Amino acid sequence: MAAPYVALFALSLLLLLLLVGSWKRWGRERAARHVLVVVLGDVGRSPRMQYHALSLAKHGFSVTLLGFCNSKPHNELLQSDRIRIVRLMELQSLTVGPRVLQYGIKVVFQAVYYIYKLLQTRLGAYISLQNPPGLPSISVCWFVGCLCGSKLIIDWHNYGYSIMGLVHGHNHPLVLLAKWYERFFGRLSHMNLCVTSAMRKDLAENWCIRAVTVYDKPAAFFKETPLDLQHQLFMKLGHTYSPFRACSDPVDLATERSAFTERDAQSGTVIRLCGRPALLVSSTSWTEDEDFSILLEALERYEQLILDGDNLPSLVCVITGKGPLKDHYSHLIGQKCFQHVQVCTPWLEAEDYPLLLGSADLGVCLHKSSSGLDLPMKVVDMFGCRLPVCAMNFKCLHELVKHEENGLVFEDSEELAAQLQQMLFSKFPDPAGKLNQFRKNLCQSEHPRWDESWTQTVLPLLVDM
């Protein structure tokens, strides 16, 4: 008896959606210069999509940016009068029943909620979607686009199913279903962008999706940090994190001293301390595609080298970011008994992160890529700050990191420890050393910043659509 009522409800809902879509289509001409940018993740931790929004705004588009607002985006985004941020609510999974049922119910509720929020926002001629996560966002954005006459643009950062495979195994039914879903709905898009040439080829050969490679480029605020700003940052971080504090007080109490720098009270001149520790930085989302036990093992080997008498500097290792595995690795870090290595795991404000990269001596990247087809944007930002990098090797890393040119590539903790010892920190800080040579190479290899690259690649595609 209930079946006719269910059918009637479904038909009524479909008619309502068609009416809303028709009304939205009627206003499409007035929204020809408006774009919906959809990030079903934390906007503050999605720099590429923030840059998309900023570039669109700079070229005369108005932008509605939909996403989670767990951390603060860049000030430039917040201050733009052409960008409006719509906050999405994160829906939690059920805690009872089989995992497959929990996941299925969550996806259904997400789909209904996202359709409601998209239809509630101002019409856009384009819907630009970050993938992953693609379930259920690709189908939702495609459906709303069909209703409202908006064209769907997918920006492929990676494959969602490959990330799921790290947790469930690559042959798990959920992972295989997610792969089919991603391939099927991905083909329905009007335009596709991707982050590497390797991914572009893979999309074309295996999924019959034509994409354009848009390499990540650093924004203009990623640059070398002047010494006075370095000192201000170190003093600020020293209030919360002990590795940034000076080991001893200066003779003149009016003189400011951090672990790395000192500011003269009378002249205001900032100098680097003699015998300062080296500053090593890594950033992460604390997920399964980054194994930080490799870095911790390398630091243990480095510590032992110092204890054995090698002439190496002490290290301050700063690991920034938020994510599900942070507590796990923080517990491991707390168990280490380092004497010459200090590790801290701060979450930095958006404006402080570029300053830290521009102040560091070396960056370390442990990103392995679940698909082997994406590149770590953290390295792009480091290169923008002229910061040499040691990066974990994987399939297409050569598209970004050139071994022995702008950094070094390693396979395991033993190789990373050897690079820290022999290639980088021996006789630190030697102006003729490997670190400074890499830094000079980065300064000499000028590349376009994000907005220049976006203007050359994405803008002509929008005009032609």
TrEMBL record:
Locate the transmembrane regions by residue number. none
Q: Which Gene3D superfamilies match?
A: Glycogen Phosphorylase B (3.40.50.2000)
Q: Which UniProt keywords apply?
A: Endoplasmic reticulum, Glycosyltransferase, Membrane, Phosphoprotein, Signal, Signal-anchor, Transferase, Transmembrane, Transmembrane helix
- Tell me which EC number(s) this protein carries: 2.4.1.142
Highest taxon in the source lineage: Eukaryota
One Pfam family here: Glyco_trans_1_4
Q: State the signal peptide span.
A: 1-22
Q: Which GO terms describe its cellular component?
A: endoplasmic reticulum membrane
The reply to whether Transmembrane figures as a keyword in the UniProt entry is: yes
The answer, when asked if Acetylation is one of the entry's keywords, is: no
Task: Name the major location.
Answer: endoplasmic reticulum
Reactions that this protein is recorded to catalyse: an N,N'-diacetylchitobiosyl-diphospho-di-trans,poly-cis-dolichol + GDP-alpha-D-mannose = a beta-D-Man-(1->4)-beta-D-GlcNAc-(1->4)-alpha-D-GlcNAc-diphospho-di-trans,poly-cis-dolichol + GDP + H(+)
- Compartments, as annotated in UniProt: Endoplasmic reticulum membrane
Describe its membrane topology: Single-pass membrane protein
What does the UniProt record say this protein does?
Mannosyltransferase that operates in the biosynthetic pathway of dolichol-linked oligosaccharides, the glycan precursors employed in protein asparagine (N)-glycosylation. The assembly of dolichol-linked oligosaccharides begins on the cytosolic side of the endoplasmic reticulum membrane and finishes in its lumen. The sequential addition of sugars to dolichol pyrophosphate produces dolichol-linked oligosaccharides containing fourteen sugars, including two GlcNAcs, nine mannoses and three glucoses.
**PANTHER family recorded for this chain?**
BETA1,4 MANNOSYLTRANSFERASE, CHITOBIOSYLDIPHOSPHODOLICHOL BETA-MANNOSYLTRANSFERASE
Question: Family, per the entry?
Answer: Belongs to the glycosyltransferase group 1 family. Glycosyltransferase 33 subfamily.
The protein's name is Chitobiosyldiphosphodolichol beta-mannosyltransferase
Query: From which organism does this entry originate?
Result: Otolemur garnettii (Small-eared galago)
